[in-house]
Amino acid sequence: MRGEREMALALAVAWCQTEYENREEAVKGDETARKQFHAFVLFLAELYLNLEIKGTKGQVTRAEILQEGLRELLNVLFCNPVDNNLRCAVKLLKLTGSILEDAWKEKGKNYMEEIIQRIENVVLDANCSRDVKHMLLKVVELRSSNWGRVHETSPRTKATPENDPNYFMNEPTFYTSDGVPFTAADPDYQEKYQELLEREDLFPDYEENGVALSGPGDKYFNDLDNKMDPEIEEAYEKFCLESEHKRKQ
User: Fold this and answer.
1) Which residue in 160, 214, 233, 241 could disulfide with 218, CB within 3.0 to 4.6 Å?
2) Which residues in 208-238 are b (16+ Cβ under 10 Å) and which e?
3) What is the mean pLDDT of residues 148-169?
C-alpha cells in the first residue's frame, strides 16, 4: 500500500512539473491545451490550500514553493489576456487570494498590489469581453473588502452597566415627590423606587374577582378630573364633538 501511495505521489509531482515547465506554450495554445492548463492551475491552488507542512518547531505552514508557483502562473495568465485565461485567473484569486496575500505580507512583499495593478491594466487595455472585465473588477472589489473577511475588534462580551454606557438608554424615567427625575442608572434607584411605590396608590379599591377598580366618588379619579390639563380637556371635548358628528351622519 505504501509503495502504491509513493508511486502515485511521484506521478503527480512529475505531472505538475511537466505542466509548469510548459506553461508558456500551454497558455498560448489551442482551446484544448488551455483547458488542460487551467485544470492544472486550479489543481495547484487546491493543493496549496490543503497541503500543510509541519516545521521543525512544530508550527504548521503552507508550501512556500507553491506560493511562488501560483504567482508565476498568475503572471503567465495575465500576460496572455484572452477570456478563458482571465477567467482562470479570477477563479485562482477567489480561491487563494486572501491566503496568498497574508503569506506575502508576512514576508514584507507587495505582490498582491502588483497583481491588482495588472488587473486594472487589463481592464483598461485588453480586448477581452465585457463580462470578463466585470469579473476582474469584482475581484478588485473583493480584495478591497479584505477578501470578504470580517475581523472583530474585540471579543464579544455581555453588556453590563459597567462596560456599556448605553445600558440604561431605554429604561423608563421616574420622578420623586420633589419632581426630581431618576432611572435605574441612579445609585439609590431601589430606595427611590420603593418610595414611589408607597406614595402612588393607583387602584385603592382593586379586587381580585375583577370588580370595577374604583367606585363613585373615588378620590384618585376625582383628583384626575380636577387636575386635567386645559389642552387635554380641549382635545377631549373636540374628540367628543367629532364622534357625535360622525354618529349623526
Assistant:
1) 214
2) eeeeeebeeeeeeeeeeeeeeeeeeeeeeee
3) 57
